[in-house]
Amino acid sequence: SNAEFTKKDNDTYSLDVNGSCLYQDYEIARNRLMMRESNLYSEMHTSSKKGLKLRQWAKNRMPSYLNPEGIYSSHHLSELENMSPDDLHEEYGNVSLYNWVHAYQCLVELSKEELRKRFSSKKPIPLQVDRWLIIKSRENWLSFFKRKGMAEDVAKKVIGYFTFNSKSHDLNDCPFIPCVDGLCLMPALIAHSSATRSLMSLFGSKKISQAGKGRFHEQQFLRQVRAAGIKASPIETHANFQCDCVMLIDDHLIFTELKSNGQPIYYGK
Questions:
Q1: Taking a C-beta distance cutoff of 8 angstroms, is the pair 88, 186 a contact?
Q2: Which residues of the chain have pLDDT under 50?
Q3: pTM for this prediction
Q4: d(Cα 141, Cα 184) in Å, to the nearest integer?
Q5: Is 150 exposed, middle or buried (0-12, 13-18, 19+ CB in 10 A)?
Q6: I need a labelling partner for 46 at 20 to 30 A (CA). Which of 61, 66, 159, 237 fits?
Q7: How far apart are CA 184 and CA 241, in angstroms?
Q8: CA dihedral in degrees (234, 76, 71, 196; nearest 10)?
Q9: Which domain of life is it from (predicted)?
Q10: What gap in Å lies between CA 136 and CA 133, rounded to an integer?
């Protein structure tokens, strides 16, 4: 192996990787996820010590329309995107990450319910397309998402992104297949799909804008710093220069680059 762990003391380990290690990028990415997971566990543990149940903790931090599966998927997405749950109010493609998770999870639940009906039936199902697929017009899909608590303009955007086209990777990413009668869904496939992994693939395949990533964390930091009486402001003078937060402390001007989590370990050492 080209990777070697060395124990320095009781609490410190180092990982040595030479330049030819094929898994260097993988290890860096995995370390980010481990750091994110540790932070989430710490937040939950702190909430538990304060006497709060996890369900109540999630209720206070996440939109009320999320069901338990949606809460789990949201936590998973926060790990993969290296964000805290609060950051999931940020928007990708003008749709909040919570709405992305909720929309896909609604399709998963709809597909599961369709399969339950199918397998509980004692009569054989005819080999007809409309008996094996869920087919609705765009207007009916729009009504479906609105009944689930989504705003009309957001639901329209989600339907557009979920519609399969030449940019799509597969039917997990984009579960809506255009057909004569509108858009059809394959319940046998989507019922077993991972909302989080499908969305991560969709964001990349359709190059959905993530320009606002990190803004929620930056605004949260600025509010807390200003509340402490410190003069602080973001700077964005032109396309090639911006600073997340400039602070004035004891006549010292401090330029700050904000990250929601620490950088991964440097592997060259």
A1: no
A2: 1, 262-269
A3: 0.63
A4: 10
A5: buried
A6: 66
A7: 46
A8: 100
A9: Bacteria
A10: 10
Q: What is the largest CA-CA distance in the chain?
A: 80
Q: Supply the DSSP string of the chain, one letter for each residue.
A: --EEEEE-SSS-EEEEE-TT-TTHHHHHHHHHHHHHHHHHHHHHHHHHHTT--HHHHHHHHS-TT--HHHHHHHHHHHHHTT--GGGGGSEETTEEHHHHHHHHHHHHHHHHHHHHHHHH-SSPPPS-HHHHSEEE-HHHHHHHHHHTT--HHHHHHHHHHHB--TT---TTTS-BEEETTEEEE-HHHHTT--HHHHHHHHHHHTT---TTTTHHHHHHHHHHHHHTT-EEEEEEEETTEEEEEEEEETTEEEEE---SSPPPPPTT-
> Under 8 Å CB-to-CB from 66, ≥6 apart: which residues?
58, 74, 98, 101, 102, 105
Question: Which tokens in the block code for residue 47?
Answer: 């909430």
Structure tokens at 239: 């396309």
Q: Indicate if the alpha-carbon torsion angle 133, 137, 142, 148 is positive or negative.
A: negative
Dump pLDDT digits (tens) for 132-173: 889 999 999 999 999 998 899 999 999 999 999 888 878 888
First and final C-alpha spacing in the chain: 17
Contact predicate 164/171, CB 8 Å: yes
Q: How far apart are the C-alpha atoms of 7 and 266, rounded to whole Å?
A: 16
